[in-house]
């Protein structure tokens, strides 16, 4: 993707498309495959920059990983003990999922590693995983007492813990479950609301037993992962959300997105768009590697403002910037609360969403834990900036489809983090 992307107003969106593979599932397939015994072939893999960082890190730990084609990856796992000490940095790039889940694996690996990332990762809190991993027995050093990258990890024998997480975070939960596999006894994690459960769905396919209730998950240590042979990755609902939003707000649109992951811990955005009055039809077509999959058909709709809060938030956490764009086109006020986690994503997504939407003439107020958006407001064209955040880049680009004069997105290359081919897919839909 070029660094500047210009999106002009569209008459309508029409047609059928697919979206790239789910990012969360792609990361996990590579990581679990890397520490499992046996070969794992991943189809529908997301060839976005974040998942490529995961591949690179595990190659540096001696795991043979081949890419037959863009979206097909084969991991030659030799078991967790097959990982070897990396002889240079493990660079996670922009990927929070890579660093937090990998720290769980490094904590249980008897060697030294040094973990770095880009300037956005350097601002994101790591103490939420470093503190419990230290309690399990891992030695972790780093900037500001180990709260930020760069981090140095010496892993080894771990003891299980019971951890009550302050935030609903699948990255924290998954990190500790992975470390728990190398610990004596039972590791238990409790969270305030249930976060995405891809780890809990995929680990059993790798032969791991775990126990779950609504907001709690536990497993006993000393279990070995063995490859299921194949993992089939559905389309990423977080990427589909940008196209769904576009079809809702551009008049006369009617589109279908096929083979999208419909895991109920991820479908909060469909629930909220429907509550706003969005005409969205969902047809479940099957299950791929333990994950529900289906087709989503969207027709442009008259929308109204809604309140989004509580246990809905973790189910649509990455979709809040695009939800804010849609809310500018809804009649009445949309209030998003309980979403303070947005401040520690690739950017402060509360501040940056408000700033970029205001450039376009939207009426947006930042609150301590969310946003208040007044609709309905016509958007005017402007220059926006992704601030290096893929979701902000795509949200402002979608706004360009309805902004008088279009939108130019600076630092648009960030979009390749999660949605390579975004511009091409949008172009296909806007040209019938
Ligand atoms: O586990 C995952 O794959 C992810 C969990 C979420 O982060 P948190 O765990 O920090 O909420 C989400 O925002 C991120 O895009 C992917
Ligand atoms: C927050 C995100 O990802 P990560 O935490 O993996 O960087 C995202 O994809 O929106």
UniProtKB/TrEMBL annotation:
It comes from the Bacteria. Residues 8-426 form the Enolpyruvate transferase domain. Gene3D superfamilies: Enolpyruvate transferase domain (3.65.10.10). The keyword S-adenosyl-L-methionine does not apply. It is an enzyme of class 2 (transferase). The active site is at 318 (proton acceptor). GO terms for molecular function: 3-phosphoshikimate 1-carboxyvinyltransferase activity. Pathway: Metabolic intermediate biosynthesis; chorismate biosynthesis; chorismate from D-erythrose 4-phosphate and phosphoenolpyruvate: step 6/7. It holds the Pfam family EPSP_synthase. Its EC number is 2.5.1.19. GO terms for cellular component: cytoplasm. InterPro entries: Enolpyruvate_Tfrase_dom, Enolpyruvate_Tfrase_sf, EPSP_synthase, EPSP_synthase_CS, RNA3'P_cycl/enolpyr_Trfase_a/b. The keyword Protease does not apply. It catalyses: 3-phosphoshikimate + phosphoenolpyruvate = 5-O-(1-carboxyvinyl)-3-phosphoshikimate + phosphate. Keywords: Amino-acid biosynthesis, Aromatic amino acid biosynthesis, Cytoplasm, Transferase. Phosphoenolpyruvate binds at residues 23, 96, 124, 171, 349, 391. PROSITE patterns: EPSP_SYNTHASE_1 (PS00104), EPSP_SYNTHASE_2 (PS00885). It is found in: Cytoplasm. 3-phosphoshikimate binds at residues 23-24, 28, 169, 171, 318, 345. GO terms for biological process: amino acid biosynthetic process; aromatic amino acid family biosynthetic process; chorismate biosynthetic process. Its main location: cytoplasm. NCBIfam families: aroA. Catalyzes the transfer of the enolpyruvyl moiety of phosphoenolpyruvate (PEP) to the 5-hydroxyl of shikimate-3-phosphate (S3P) to produce enolpyruvyl shikimate-3-phosphate and inorganic phosphate. Monomer. Belongs to the EPSP synthase family. This is 3-phosphoshikimate 1-carboxyvinyltransferase. It comes from Desmospora activa DSM 45169. The lineage of its organism: Bacteria, Bacillati, Bacillota, Bacilli, Bacillales. The gene is aroA.
């Amino acid at each position: 993707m070029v660094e500047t992307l210009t999106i002009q107003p569209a008459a309508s969106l029409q047609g059928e498309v697919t979206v790239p593979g789910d990012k969360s599932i792609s990361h996990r397939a590579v990581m679990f495959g890397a520490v499992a015994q046996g070969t794992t072939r991943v189809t529908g893999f997301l060839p976005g920059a974040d998942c490529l960082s995961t591949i690179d890190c595990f190659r540096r730990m001696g795991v043979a990983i081949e890419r037959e084609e863009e979206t097909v990856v084969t991991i030659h796992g030799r078991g967790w003990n097959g990982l070897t000490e990396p002889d240079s940095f493990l660079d996670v790039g922009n990927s929070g999922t890579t660093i937090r889940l990998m720290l769980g694996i490094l904590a249980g690996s008897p060697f030294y590693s040094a973990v770095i990332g880009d300037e956005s990762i350097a601002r994101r809190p790591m103490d939420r995983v470093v503190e419990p991993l230290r309690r399990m027995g891992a030695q972790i050093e780093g900037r500001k007492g180990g709260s930020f990258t760069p981090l140095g990890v010496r892993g080894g024998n771990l003891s299980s813990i019971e951890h009550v997480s302050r935030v609903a975070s699948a990255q924290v939960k998954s990190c500790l479950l992975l470390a728990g596999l190398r610990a004596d006894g039972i590791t238990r994690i409790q969270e305030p609301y249930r976060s995405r459960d891809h780890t809990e769905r995929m680990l059993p396919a790798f032969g791991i037993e775990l126990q779950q209730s609504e907001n709690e998950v536990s497993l006993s240590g000393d279990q070995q992962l063995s490859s299921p042979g194949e993992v089939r990755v559905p389309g990423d609902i977080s990427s589909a959300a940008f196209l769904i939003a576009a079809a809702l707000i551009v008049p006369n649109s009617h589109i279908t997105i096929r083979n999208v992951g419909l895991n109920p811990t991820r479908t909060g955005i469909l629930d909220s768009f429907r509550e706003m009055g969005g005409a969205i039809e969902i047809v479940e077509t099957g299950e791929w590697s333990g994950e529900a999959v289906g087709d989503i058909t969207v027709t442009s709709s008259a929308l109204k403002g809604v309140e989004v809060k509580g246990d809905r938030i973790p189910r649509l956490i990455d979709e809040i910037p695009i939800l804010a764009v849609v809310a500018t086109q809804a009649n009445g006020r949309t209030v998003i609360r309980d979403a303070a986690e947005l401040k520690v994503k690739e950017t402060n997504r509360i501040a940056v969403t408000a700033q970029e939407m205001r450039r376009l003439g939207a009426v947006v107020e930042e609150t301590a834990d969310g946003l208040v958006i007044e609709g309905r407001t016509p958007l005017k064209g402007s220059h926006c900036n992704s601030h290096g955040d893929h979701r902000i880049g795509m949200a402002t680009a979608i706004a360009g489809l309805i902004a008088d004069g279009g939108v130019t997105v600076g630092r648009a290359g960030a979009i390749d983090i999660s949605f390579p081919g975004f511009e091409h897919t949008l172009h296909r839909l806007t040209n019938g």
